[in-house]
Amino acid sequence: MRTTPNPLSAVRNLGILAHVDAGKTTVTERILYATGTTRKRGEVHDGTTVTDFDPQERDRGITIFAAAVSCAWDGHRINLIDTPGHVDFADEVERSLRVLDGAVAVFDAVAGVEPQSESVWRQADRHGVPRIAFVNKLDRAGADLDRAVGSIRERLHPAPLVVQLPVGAEGGFTGVVDLVRMRSLIWGDDEGTAVDGAVPEELREEAVRRRRALEEAVAERHPAALEEFCDRETLSAATLTTALRDLTRSGDGVVVLCGSAYRNRGIEPLLDAVVAYLPSPLDVPAVRGVHDGAGQQQRNADPRLPFAGLVFKVNAGATGRLAYVRIYSGTLEKGDIVCDAGAGRTERVARILRVMADRHVQLDRAVAGDIVAVAGVKSARPGATLCDPGAPLLLEPPVAADPVVSVAVEARRSTDTGRLATALARLAEEDPSLVVRIDAETGQTVLSGRGELHLEVAVERIRRDGGPEVTVGRPRVAYRETVAGGVRGFVYRHVKQDGGAGQFAHVVLDVEPLGPDAGVTGFVFRSAVTGGRVPQEYVRAVEAGCRDALAEGPLGGHPVTGLRVTLTDGSTHVKDSSDTAFRTAGRLGLRAALRACTAVLLEPVAEVTVTVPADAVGGVLGDLAARRGRVGGSQARGGAAVLTAIVPLAELFGYATRLRSRTQGRGTFTTRPAGYAPAPATTPAR
Question: Which residues carry a binding-site annotation for GTP?
Answer without folding.
Answer: 18-25, 82-86, 136-139
